Amino acid sequence: MSTTADPPRTTLPIVADGAGVGVDYQLFMDCVHCGLCLSACPTYVENGNENDSPRGRIYLMRNVTDGKIDLNEEVNHHLDLCLQCLACESACPSGVQYHKLIEGFKFLHNQARLPAKLSWMQRQMLFHVTPHAGRTRLALAPIRLLQHLRLDGLVNALAKLMPRSLREMHAILPRLQSHPGRLPELLPAEGKRRARVALFTGCAADAFFPQTNHATARILQRNGCEVWIPGNQVCCGALHYHAAQRAPACRFALANVDAFQAQSVDAIIVNAGGCGPMLKDYGHLLGSTDAEAFAKKVRDIHEFLIELGPIQPEYPLPIRATYHDACGLSHAQQIRKPPRRLLEMIPGLDLVPLMESEMCCGAAGSYTVTEPDMANDIGRRKARNILATNAQAVFTGNVGCLLQIARHLRPHRPDLWVAHPVDALWASYSGDIPNLPPSPS
Fold it and tell me: Going by DSSP bridges, is the β-strand pair 350-352/320-323 parallel, antiparallel, or unpaired?
């Protein structure tokens, strides 16, 4: 009697710099094709194409690995449409490690594809400007000035003459506040010191929303934390890593491990939901004891404050608000309740539920540039759900989400406050209440 052997558990070849990138064949077999991930996947929900679902992409990757189909442009297109939001992992009852499949597969097969899909200008902006806070601030300075002079309407008119790739990059720009300058390297705790923490300020987040970093630092001080802000910290490396550019991602990671000296602080605080998962994965990325020690100290600002026990904010913020779960928080880090608990502490704030709150908004790092059509479809869906709440404000804990959501709300509710939860929390701590839009009827 003949029996059919199980598929071999082989590891695909190591690529990149020999740091252990590969895909274990057994990861394909963990998927039982139940389909419970389908309703959680933004691309499948949007177009109903099974190839654009997690289960469909696993079939495609496995068949390419087995040599049954070629890795042609059609297959690559379905894989490229994946936002890597990891909503499928949250929904999966079998514990399929989809992120290891899609990331490993892209490292193995698609290292040059993403940069090749971009124009020269897009490549420069994504990989040589955005990951450097100073360069990004410099690039945004003319826009900030024109907005201050109320001449941004002229820029918007001229933007219509740009190639689509540049129009998309321009369209996502928010109204920029005046940059308050760099934070000092050391900020003392207010009252009795409860912790000594380091603050990761990021690159794009610091350039687009510097007020959020300042609010984060002040909140930590108010809660008894001495705050150290290393001046030699750099980008977390996520943009490069998710573009299958492992070597520069590792360089950024090594620089941060050296800069933060994890043993000298109680926690390393990050307020960007997209950076947190990357920072927490440095141990796996670099495979060193120093990187492991760094990763163990990383805490998202929301989870850290709840663990610490936050001081009650006192100034009322009388608004109707809703909250969007950034994928890097809800799916990659399983942080859902802490941001809501902090918002619910604010006197007068009425936090209302958001339909499909954990559905990706379509930002996903460079996705708005590489896949603008799908990003716009998903962004418009998110905007419709937010508008249906009749909220005056929407809060979310990631810079990409803030940019994407504000962009798609702008045609309908340009006055709606789109902000990070810590911006609202600091307003309630400080009494510096922003001008709020009226509640829609």
Answer: parallel
pLDDT surpasses 80 at 118: no
Q: Which among 161, 179, 163, 156 is positioned nearest to 414, based on CA atoms?
A: 156
- The DSSP 8-state label assigned to residue 3 in this structure reads -
pLDDT digits (tens, 9 = 90+) for 414-431: 999 999 999 999 999 999
Evaluated on CA atoms 106, 109, 114, 117, the torsion sign reads negative
Runs of H (alpha helix) within 66-163: 73-80, 87-91, 98-109, 113-117, 120-124, 133-148, 152-159
User: Is 54 in contact with 32 (CB distance < 8 Å)?
Assistant: no
Digit-coded pLDDT (tens) for 17-50: 333 445 777 888 888 889 899 999 999 999 999 9
Q: Please answer whether residues 238 and 274 qualify as being in contact, where contact means their C-beta atoms are separated by less than 8 angstroms.
A: yes
Q: What is the band of 365 on the pLDDT scale with cuts at 50, 70, 90? A: confident
At residue 381, the 3 state secondary structure works out as: helix
**CA distances in angstroms from 251 to 181, 237, 280, 285, 381, listed in the order given:** 26, 8, 16, 11, 37
Domains and CATH numbers, the chain: 26-111 (1.10.1060.10), 116-441 (no CATH)
pLDDT at 441 over 60: no
Task: Answer yes or no: is pLDDT of 190 > 90.
Answer: yes
Minimal CA–CA distance to 402: which of 263, 279, 273?
273
Contact 395, 421 (CB under 8 A): yes
Helices (H), 181-311: 204-208, 210-222, 238-242, 246-260, 275-280, 282-286, 289-297, 301-308
Percent of the chain whose predicted confidence (pLDDT) is above 70? 88
Residue 176: how many CB atoms within 10 A of its CB?
20
Close Cβ partners of 337 (under 8 Å, ≥ 6 residues apart): 306
Amino acid at 130: T
Per-residue DSSP letters for 44-88? HHHH--GGGSHHHHHHHHHHHHTTSS---HHHHHHHHT-----HH
* Residue located via tokens 């799908």: 374
- Is the model more confident about 110 or about 202? 202
Question: With bands split at pLDDT 50, 70 and 90, how would you rate the model's confidence at 6?
Answer: very low
